[in-house]
């Protein structure tokens, strides 16, 4: 079996507890062409498919190469 050396290491950018903050972060990442992956906690992925929201929290994952740029963009609008 051939080893894939083109794998991307994903880093957790933020853990989000509400849909408003999630929408804001997704919009910022989209506007700046930063690819991301949404990872819902527990059964949150199923809840998002059925009801459109997750009550269990969500992680936003970005490529390791993009994490510094994404953090600097988010620091200008979000206070942890």
TrEMBL record:
InterPro entries per the UniProt record, alphabetical: DUF2007 (IPR018551), N-reg_PII-like_a/b (IPR011322)
Pfam families tied to this protein: DUF2007
Gene3D superfamilies: UreE, C-terminal domain (3.30.70.790)
Occurrences of domain DUF2007 (ranges): 11-77
Top-level lineage group: Bacteria
Protein name, as recorded: DUF2007 domain-containing protein
């Amino acid at each position: 079996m051939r080893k894939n050396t083109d794998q991307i290491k994903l880093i957790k950018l933020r853990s989000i507890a509400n849909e408003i903050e999630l929408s804001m972060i997704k919009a910022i990442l989209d506007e700046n062409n930063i690819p991301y992956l949404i990872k819902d906690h527990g059964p949150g992925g199923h809840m998002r498919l059925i009801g459109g929201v997750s009550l269990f929290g969500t992680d936003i994952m970005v490529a390791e190469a993009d994490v510094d740029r994404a953090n600097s963009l988010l620091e200008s609008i979000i206070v942890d």
